[in-house]
Amino acid sequence: MRPPFRILVGLSVAGLAASSLTACGPATPEPDPAAEALASALESGDFSAVPLAETTAEEAGDVVVQAYSPMGEIPHAHTVTQVAVDEEEQDGVKTATATLHTVWDVDETENDFAYDTRAVWELDAEDERWELRFAPEILAPELGEGESLAAQTTSGERGEITGAGDEPLVTDRPVVRVGIDKTRAESSEWEASARELAGLVGIDADAYAARVEASGDKGWVQAIVLREDGREVTDEQIAAIPGAIAQPDEIPLAPTREFARPILGTVGAATAEIIEESEGRIEAGDQVGLSGLQAAYNADLAGTKGVTVTRNSAEGEPVAELYASEQTDGQDLELTLDADLQTHAEAALADVEPASALVAVRPSDGAVLAAASGPGSENYNTALLGRYAPGSTFKVVSALAMLRGGSTPETEVECTPTTEVDGKSFKNFDAYPASALGGIPLSEALAQSCNTVFVDAGNDVGAAPLAEAAAALGLTGEDTTGAGAFLGAVPDDSTGTELAANMIGQGVVQASPLGMATAAASVANGATVTPKLVLSPAQDATSEDSSAEASPSPDAPAEPASTLTAEEAESLRTMMTGVVDHGTLVDLKGLPGGAVIGKSGTAEYDDEENAHAWTIAIQGDLAVAVFVETGDGGSHTAAPLVADFLTAAAE
């Protein structure tokens, strides 16, 4: 509740001239405690602690319920601002008057609906107490018998979610609300119609029939909302069912049901939990963001409600308007997503059964152009929140740490079939080419993905420099997407076998598809990239699925613990060129759209040798990461998805 010194809009009653506590003899009790009890009772509806004249506590409480219930859940507070014993008696009875200040916190603005009222007390000399002359006008000025205060709210237009080039991603699109209107069918037909309609639109028949049965005789019971565009259920099929109708409407929707759904989220009727947590700001029937960015930025997208308060007659008809505020439309949420690239990303993943993701970042400015999570992710935001061992794609990080330790792409390293660290054996992947064993340049070790070279380098590199290299590639920076994302985690205190495993992207290092796309973008950019997704409004927001801290504003990214230099990036690009030219990603050679460089990765995650499949790639001003939770290696499972995406993007 806002304090009463803020701007007050409403009605007032003139203050009393008499000062408190005057004209009372030594034996007269103070009226102040009784007045404070009244203020509490007006908030709680319980008058048991208020001395009353010629009425009961139950009767007074009933009047409060009747008068205030039409205000809904709007919070209200009552403050005693003045108590004065009247100078003259009324009909031989000593009286006192209290002034009460009432404030209704009707909306989120600085203005409140506020007014002053008076309560008159009479002194019961025998019992030596002040008793309230209860009357409706104590509750609100000029409130008569049986009258009430009533609030009506209106909502502005919900803001759109736009992408690159201000293209609407979520905007009002035509739908039909399909359901049973019980006034259009005989009561004997209701259950059968409900079940037939449920079967037609593919919802639970028992549950829907029960809802239809439980509604009133004149009820309209919605079964489902269908997109107008491309719906298979026709108006003729609906009309053939007694009582079934399709009502045209428009609601905020993405281009398709699946489009960026884990990121954008959904809009729907407020749940009981949301209503309770809103403390009166959200009411039953309000359309609110239920997940994703729609929920995280709901206050911005929804705008503010307009509120009108009226004094209503005993019959519920408005008698006078007491307060009115205009609703405001919601703000648009501006994202970096490119609608075409997002569509291409989702098409590439459409047939992938395990959890999967494809993220595309523009290296020149860090804009997240696509962030798709495949159908196997079951609406989880794998693209931004997945935490997985990145496998050999992490060797780009390890290679940077080695470069900083004095190596160059030409430095000769020894690639052995196996190696051992503190009693634990490490080996190369089964199809590793024998021709790339022995003394080879570091660039060839990356191109062919020699595990033993990077495992053996772990002790010389050290955990702290490895963590600094990850930071320089943007893998462990603070989340500045505005969407509550996870990038990666690389400890700076690993030793022994853990450090050795970390060097090849296993051990305890973690990355999201966004994190690995960011690392590739940093290499392409020649400097550390900070990814961004939400451009405006710039504010903190976290996904409901994220355990990360609130994201800082995209406009003020924190400085990374270490930054990438142009020279370091050039060396990494040289080595990643070999991966596509003659290494593990030769299938990405010759794609339309220009030369591609990259790195594949495989990370076993159980004793049965099931493995995550990764590929990161760079083509011009586009950096891509593809992840499949269970696959047949990065080059076999993830790389073809990269090829599909880049080919579609080039068309």
From TrEMBL:
<dbReference type="GO" id="GO:0051301">
    <property type="term" value="P:cell division"/>
</dbReference>
<dbReference type="InterPro" id="IPR050515">
    <property type="entry name" value="Beta-lactam/transpept"/>
</dbReference>
<dbReference type="InterPro" id="IPR001460">
    <property type="entry name" value="PCN-bd_Tpept"/>
</dbReference>
<dbReference type="InterPro" id="IPR012338">
    <property type="entry name" value="Beta-lactam/transpept-like"/>
</dbReference>
<keyword id="KW-0732">Signal</keyword>
<keyword id="KW-0378">Hydrolase</keyword>
<comment type="similarity">
    <text>Belongs to the transpeptidase family.</text>
</comment>
<keyword id="KW-0472">Membrane</keyword>
<dbReference type="InterPro" id="IPR036138">
    <property type="entry name" value="PBP_dimer_sf"/>
</dbReference>
<comment type="similarity">
    <text>Belongs to the class-D beta-lactamase family.</text>
</comment>
<feature type="domain" description="Penicillin-binding protein transpeptidase">
    <location>
        <begin position="358"/>
        <end position="646"/>
    </location>
</feature>
<dbReference type="InterPro" id="IPR002137">
    <property type="entry name" value="Beta-lactam_class-D_AS"/>
</dbReference>
<keyword id="KW-0132">Cell division</keyword>
<feature type="signal peptide">
    <location>
        <begin position="1"/>
        <end position="23"/>
    </location>
</feature>
<dbReference type="Pfam" id="PF03717">
    <property type="entry name" value="PBP_dimer"/>
</dbReference>
<protein>
    <recommendedName>
        <fullName>Beta-lactamase</fullName>
        <ecNumber>3.5.2.6</ecNumber>
    </recommendedName>
</protein>
<feature type="region of interest" description="Disordered">
    <location>
        <begin position="144"/>
        <end position="168"/>
    </location>
</feature>
<keyword id="KW-0046">Antibiotic resistance</keyword>
<keyword id="KW-0131">Cell cycle</keyword>
<feature type="region of interest" description="Disordered">
    <location>
        <begin position="537"/>
        <end position="564"/>
    </location>
</feature>
<dbReference type="Pfam" id="PF00905">
    <property type="entry name" value="Transpeptidase"/>
</dbReference>
<dbReference type="InterPro" id="IPR005311">
    <property type="entry name" value="PBP_dimer"/>
</dbReference>
<feature type="compositionally biased region" description="Low complexity">
    <location>
        <begin position="548"/>
        <end position="563"/>
    </location>
</feature>
<feature type="domain" description="Penicillin-binding protein dimerisation">
    <location>
        <begin position="154"/>
        <end position="321"/>
    </location>
</feature>
